[in-house]
Design goal:
- The structure is a single chain.
- By secondary structure, the chain is an all-alpha fold.
- It has a domain of 62 residues.
- The chain is 52% helix and 0% strand.
- It is globular.
- The two termini are 18 Å apart.
Length: 96
């Protein structure tokens, strides 16, 4: 119960999360959002690895493809940061 952060397990409201994803789809290829999410996490200086989850073989393959993606360029990173700051920062950043 102490770890319950709602239906997304992160503290981000579900509808707000969908808005953030919609915005990210205007910045990144929609079919590669999972891979770029993993790349984004690994770009953080304090992160050394990502433990992914998967419910089926297709998700495992999709996760593995992320290692082949190049890091986003500076303009794309700034756009991603803007989405984070607009939608995600306030609901969860204080938890860290």
């Amino acid at each position: 119960m102490a770890f319950d952060k709602g239906e997304t397990f992160s503290g981000v409201d579900y509808e707000l999360g969908l808005e953030a994803v919609s915005r990210l789809k205007t910045i990144l290829p929609a079919d590669q959002l999972t891979g770029y999410a993993l790349r984004w996490i690994l770009l953080q200086e304090t992160v050394s690895c990502v433990i992914t989850g998967a419910s089926n073989q297709g998700q495992i393959i999709e996760n593995a493809k992320s290692v082949d993606l190049s890091a986003p360029d500076a303009k794309t990173i700034e756009a991603i940061k803007a989405v984070y700051n607009e939608f995600i920062r306030n609901p969860v950043h204080y938890l860290w």
